[in-house]
């Protein structure tokens, strides 16, 4: 096999669909030769034309000059059969997610390519060990998982199967770098890194929906406006499609032997079985028009009625609450007069538990989430049986201070705090299992899912002790093992160590 930096280094791509086209494009953009094959007659040539169209568009946008474009096009050829891959240094398979089909392709390739050529699969869900099992040289088999659209998504996961040699993984990582991707090494496991680490964003949102905490519009608005996520979980599920999201969720859940931290909800399954797949069917969590735009504007914003509050009593001494009140122009009372709203910030508790623990009037309690950005949107929460006038009074004052309000039902950890702690905890689970280096976990989730920060960074941002406390309270209040904190998180929080401290 040629050195990965050799100008003649050649990549074969099996499958000329969207992913195969993208892999071919980044290969030639990296200065390598690429050969595209598809079993369907004419598909490889059609795929090459699509790649050329994308290159032409880059020229039109002045992102690529004509000479470079011509050079790249000359590097991409089409194979009439797999036997044309005999000179390839690496072959990347990007066909349908069917184990037997992939095994068949790899078996055939082993009789064609050189003994030291690398065989990689772009699978997003099938174990590398299962694909390599029938190969004569399983040590040269690995995953090279790209993300769609390949030319725009900068991440590639290098998946090391149980037999994959270190040299093969290193070579694929270097190949990813030459393609202009950021390569992260991941141990073989269900969902690999991104599809595993990303489960919390979807499943916890679905869990809160099932508990009646908030609507899809409310949850999406809180997570985008207050936490910096590019898309809310429900809009994102609708974009990727329930036909993709639900099966992957089940593959990961069942692959980890029904670990509660990875469980989805019956509603998720119902949408999948009902064919409400999202934008592609014009109906998912939201309804869409023919252009793919949501039909309804949603119900995220709460419109208060009545007179805004001028003063509130703080449920407990709190610099965060006092600072927030000063910021929005709310006076704080030295003693409870039994009339005005009581403002609280429970960290991991629901309003009910908070009121009972502090012995305060739950009817007048209005809880505000100060764990995330409140400059644009503020989340308010009340206990069952609360006086709606108290919510209106606080919401009115915040509206007058230029904030948009989302009012949710009782929930341990509100929405933002609960979600971020859950993502952080799952990220530490990946670190605990040694599936990837801690720094790579953050990199992968930011590049692969456009998270505003990685899971371990979220734990740092919240504070390790706060993250641990939120998870412990969620587990205690719900009684659900889903929220058990990892030992990785617990030990570092208790010892006051950085989250990336190795075991």
Please give a quick description of this structure.
The chain has helices spanning 18-29, 43-60, 66-74, 99-110, 128-132, 166-178, 194-197, 199-210, 216-225, 233-240, 242-255, 266-274, 319-328, 351-358, 388-400, 416-432, 438-449, 455-462, 464-478, 487-494, and strands at 10-14, 33-37, 76-78, 90-93, 118-121, 141-146, 155-160, 182-187, 311-314, 331-332, 342-344, 365-368, 377-381, 404-408.
Textual characterization of the structure:
The protein has 20 helices and 14 strands. It is α/β, with parallel strands linked by helices and 503 residues long. Among the domains are: 10-188, Rossmann fold; 311-408, 3-Layer(aba) Sandwich (Rossmann fold). The strands form two sheets. Strands 3-2-1-4-5-6-7-8 form an eight-stranded mixed beta sheet, sandwiched between helices. A six-stranded mixed beta sheet has the order 10-9-11-12-13-14, with helices on both faces. Helix 13 (319-328) links the parallel strand 9 (311-314) and strand 10 (331-332). Keywords: Oxidoreductase. Residues 191-288, 413-492 form the 3-hydroxyacyl-CoA dehydrogenase C-terminal domain.
Total number of beta strands: 14
Q: Any low-confidence stretches, pLDDT <50, length ≥5?
A: none
Instruction: Tell me the overall shape.
Output: elongated
Coarse structural class? alpha/beta
Helix content estimate: 40-55%
Main pleated sheet? 8 strands, mixed
How much is the average pLDDT?
97
């Amino acid at each position: 096999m040629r050195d990965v930096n050799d100008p003649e280094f050649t990549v074969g791509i099996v499958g000329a669909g969207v992913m195969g086209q993208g892999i071919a494009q980044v290969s030639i953009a990296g200065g390598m030769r690429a050969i595209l094959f598809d079993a369907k007659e004419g598909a490889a040539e059609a795929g090459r034309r699509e790649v050329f169209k994308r290159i032409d568009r880059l020229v039109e946008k002045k992102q690529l000059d004509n000479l470079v474009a011509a050079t790249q096009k000359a590097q991409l050829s089409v194979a009439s059969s797999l036997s044309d891959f005999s000179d390839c240094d690496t072959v990347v398979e990007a066909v349908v997610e069917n184990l037997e089909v992939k095994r068949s392709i790899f078996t055939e390739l082993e009789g064609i390519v050189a003994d030291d050529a690398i065989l990689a699969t772009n699978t997003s869900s099938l174990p590398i060990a299962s694909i390599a099992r029938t190969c004569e040289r399983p040590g040269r088999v690995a995953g090279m998982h790209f993300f769609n659209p390949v030319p725009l998504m900068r991440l590639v996961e290098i998946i090391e199967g149980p037999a994959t040699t270190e040299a093969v993984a290193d070579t694929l990582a270097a190949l990813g770098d030459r393609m202009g991707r950021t390569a992260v090494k991941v141990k073989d496991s269900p969902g690999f890194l991104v599809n595993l680490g990303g489960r919390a964003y979807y499943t916890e949102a679905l869990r809160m929906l099932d508990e009646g905490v908030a609507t899809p519009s409310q949850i999406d608005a809180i997570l985008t406006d207050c936490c910096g996520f590019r898309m809310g979980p429900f809009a994102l599920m609708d974009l990727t499609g329930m036909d993709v999201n639900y099966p992957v969720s089940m593959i990961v859940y069942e692959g980890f032997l029904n670990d509660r931290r990875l469980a989805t909800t019956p509603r998720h399954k119902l949408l999948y079985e009902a064919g409400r797949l999202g934008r592609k069917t014009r109906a998912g969590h939201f309804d869409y028009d023919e252009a793919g735009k949501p039909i309804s504007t949603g119900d995220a914003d709460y419109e208060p009625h009545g007179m805004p509050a001028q003063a509130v009593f703080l449920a407990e001494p709190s610099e965060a609450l006092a600072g927030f009140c000063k910021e929005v122009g709310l006076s704080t009372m030295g003693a409870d007069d039994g009339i005005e709203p009581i403002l609280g910030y429970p960290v991991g508790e629901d309003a009910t538990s908070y009121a009972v623990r502090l012995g305060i009037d739950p009817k007048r309690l209005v809880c505000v989430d100060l764990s995330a950005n409140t400059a644009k949107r503020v989340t308010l929460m009340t206990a069952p049986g609360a006086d709606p006038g108290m919510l209106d009074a606080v919401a009115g004052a915040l509206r007058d201070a230029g904030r948009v309000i989302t009012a949710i039902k009782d929930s341990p950890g509100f929405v933002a705090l609960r979600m971020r702690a859950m993502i952080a905890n799952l990220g530490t689970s990946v670190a605990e299992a040694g599936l990837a280096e801690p720094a790579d976990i953050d990199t992968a989730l930011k590049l692969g899912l456009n998270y505003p920060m990685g899971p371990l960074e979220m734990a740092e941002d919240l504070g390790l002790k706060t993250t641990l406390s939120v998870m412990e309270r969620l587990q205690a209040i719900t009684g659900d093992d889903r929220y058990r904190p990892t030992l990785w998180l617990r030990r570092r929080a208790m010892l006051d160590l950085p989250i990336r401290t190795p075991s």
